[in-house]
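Recall the central idea of this unit: under ordinary conditions, the amino acid sequence of a chain determines the structure it adopts. In this exercise we apply that idea directly, starting from the sequence alone.
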Amino acid sequence: MARVRQVSEHGAEGGVERVYHELRRTMRVTGVDVSLRTWAAYPRFFVAMWEALGPNVETRAFEESALGLWQEVLDSTVQWEALGAWGTTRLGPSQRFHARGALELFETMQPRVMLMVSAVRMALEGQPVGQQGALGTSERLERGVPSRMAAMDWVAEKPGDAVLRTLFADIVKTVGPPGVPGEYRALGCWPSYLETAWRRLKPRMKDEDFQRASERLLESARRRARALPYPVALSRERVSALGENAEAVLKVTQALERRSPALLLNLSRLVQDVPDMLRQPMPGASRLVPDWVAAEELR
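Accordingly, the structure predicted from this sequence is:
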């Protein structure tokens, strides 16, 4: 597929900048993932997507569904051989602290992103997404980033280091477009660790059990998207009416969904390779909000 640009947080303007702000607070993370930045290249679609999907993302139901998906990922990989990259790479205490923080950030974010991507893909293909619940009736979570969450730091998609640039190219060739996934760009801050980890992650991706696990996760994400509390009113007709290329948006979304299971499986192996890593590092606190408040917030 043709290369699709990403909209950086620094470069976001207007509606995209507003959605970025709401995404960070609603998903309780310190940055905007590559998948979402890729969608933002179609700004009118991106704003409409968030208006359609945002009410679900802030609910306890969405949180629990994403956590359930992540638990499935962990269960799929727990019996696989240990990755061994964490223990064999020479990293100082400060480097390990920050690398661990990066993994906590992405294990918090990526299951949610996969659920969003599957929901949007199905909606664009005309499939029903979400239940017919009345807006504001589902339990919601407090917004805001946990104080101990690591900042989203990562290297450029085209880094100056030739070895890292070659490594990124191999990652994209293996997992699929568009762009270098955020967790690999983050781990690129420690090139020797990323190189060791990727050298051990890549061979497993060819195995039949990896492929079967990917297929199960993809179906699970779609099933969970159908069960979200509120309907997701988004369609290719709506995207076209907004003046965006609906077919291009659909192709990008399909590509993002296609690679999501493999990324989660690899992320699970990275997380389980770190001693005493939390499996739910950033739980959300509840809040109950009357219907009229929810309606006001969406205006």
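DSSP finds 13 helices and two strands in the chain.
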